[in-house]
Amino acid sequence: MTTLGVGGSTAAAELAQLQPWADCAAPIAAEEYAARLAKARALMAAQGIDALLVNAGASLRYFAGVPWGASERLVAMIVLPEGRPQIVAPRFEHGSLEADLVIAADLHGWEEHEDPHALVAATLHATRAGRLAVDPAFPFQMALRLQAAAPGVTLLDGGPIIDACRSIKSEAELALMRQAKQMTLEVHRRVARILHPGITAGAVTRFIEAAHRALGAAGNSFCIVEFGRGTSFPHGLPGERRLEQDDVVLIDTGCFVQGYTSDITRTYVYGTPGAEHRRIWNLEREAQQAAFDAVKPGVPCEAIDAAARRVLERAGLGPDYRLPGLPHRTGHGIGLSIHEGPFLVRGDATPLAPGMCFSNEPMIVLPDRFGIRLEDHFHVTEAGAQWFTEPSHAIDDPFGLAA
Q: Against a cut of 0.90, is the pTM above it?
């Protein structure tokens, strides 16, 4: 049976039908940013922390709305037990910073020839902050320079504070993530239709970028397109590939909506699936569902990984990370970062809690032959797990057209 919904159209025809997303989620409100800072301060107090350093990147966006990535120029926010946060940044960036900030904060500027770590140290000393929790994303070299500039300050891991805030998503965050994932699933449906023998992975990637933008997203957050043998490598192979008849197709992509990201994988066959394709695809879907069904508040993250692996091991795959089988964790947290904690993997005993969001992707790899990855996302509720998007239906009907 030829796979339903695959082939038969063109990139131009599919792009012409796409319109900006009609049901857009609301941006994060000012009150929510205030609540985030309040939660961080409560955690600081409980852990005996005098100040929290938040680096440029996803965490600065989370607490202050500033969508800047980290660079060699130090940009960081210091959260104190009370009062306005203090932001240290290059002086020439202050105009841009003020335009992006969604919270009230005091700015401290440094010129290009000055040491910004000394400015952070002076801010800490002025507030008598002796115990500083540092963003896990703060570069090690910068941490060393800060320690040298502030010898009386003890640097501690800020992960228990930042991760505890970011890992529990609000209803507003869930709505933004749901929009991003639904947009990417629509792109998956469209890209399947443009496939034909000879099309290159590069052409598919460019279409996905254009389709995400046509829907109103800020382009691809990332994109993996693999055909045939290339699907047996979880993150693909270098170089250009061309699609051939009856190839396995693996497409893994996502987009950003107001900083929140999607990350969805679909795997199917261009043409007619073979018996082994179908057997492994069905096993993958069973393992994905077993992981989903194991989700309950209070259950440790590692138990979800174990649930998926039991399905595969009963079928003679693995065990553990051995191939053929599942070579990586079952899932990762997701939000403002594509991969963020906690993780669905052995050794992560973090208890699941309502508001946590994860990928569910227990990929099966048959080395040098093909791989099957079905990746969807869920969030934890009081009753268990809830999908953001509907999982794939069948190897020969990935988008449920026959339903």
A: yes
